[in-house]
Amino acid sequence: KQEVTQIPAALSVPEGENLVLNCSFTDSAIYNLQWFRQDPGKGLTSLLLIQSSQREQTSGRLNASLDKSSGRSTLYIAASQPGDSATYLCAVSTNAGKSTFGDGTTLTVKP
Amino acid sequence: EAGVAQSPRYKIIEKRQSVAFWCNPISGHATLYWYQQILGQGPKLLIQFQNNGVVDDSQLPKDRFSAERLKGVDSTLKIQPAKLEDSAVYLCASSPTLAEQYFGPGTRLTVT
Prior knowledge:
The structure holds two protein chains of two kinds.
Chain A: E1 4-7, E2 10-14, E3 19-25, E4 32-38, E5 44-51, E6 56-59, E7 62-67, E8 72-77, E9 86-93, E10 99-101, E11 105-110
Parallel strand pairs in A: 2-11
Antiparallel strand pairs in A: 1-3, 3-8, 4-5, 4-9, 6-7, 7-8, 9-10, 9-11
Chain B: E1 5-7, E2 10-13, E3 19-24, E4 31-37, E5 44-50, E6 53-56, E7 65-69, E8 75-79, E9 88-95, E10 102-103, E11 107-111
Parallel strand pairs in B: 2-11
Antiparallel strand pairs in B: 1-3, 3-8, 4-5, 4-9, 5-6, 7-8, 9-10, 9-11
C-alpha cells in the first residue's frame, strides 16, 4: 500500500527566503507526481505535474524535483512572498490513475 | 474553460439523515474522482470513474456511501445514513486519462 509523507507539517519563514518542502513515498512504481496548493476553505490548485520519466519541472518561482528510485520529491519556492502562505500537498499516482496524497505542509510567510 | 463544479458548497445534517453531493467535471475529462478530506489531513480517494465505469472503489464505505456517474459526465455521491465521523470536505476532481487532476471547490459536510 502506497504511503506518502510530508515533512515538516508546518513551516514559518520570513518573506524573501528560499525554501524547500519535502515529500516521500514508499512505493516507487508511480506514474506521476503532482504538487498542489490549498488555501483555507478552498479546493486544490495544481502547481506542477512530474511524469515518472522526468527529473524536474519548473513554473515561475517554483521548481519540483523527483527521484523515483529513492521515493522522494521536493518543491523549491524561491523568494517567498506572503501570498505563498497556504498548505502544499503532494500526490503520487499509479498507471491506473489512482492517487495517494500526503497530509500537506502548511506554509506561513511572514512580511 | 469552465472548472469543476460542485454543489452544495455547505451542508449541515443530523446523524442518520441522508445527503447527496453533485459534481460536474470539466468537459471532455474521462476520469472523475471523489475524495474525502478530514480537517488537517490530505484527501483520501473514495471512488474513481473512467467514463461511466468504476475503476477503484476500494476505500468507499459501501454500507453507507454510494456513487454514480451519469452518462459518463455528471456524478453524485450519496451518504445514507450519515455518521458523525463523515464530517469532512468532499472534493470532486476530473482529468483527462492519466493526466493532471483539476479539483472543484468542495462541499463541506457537518454531521451533528
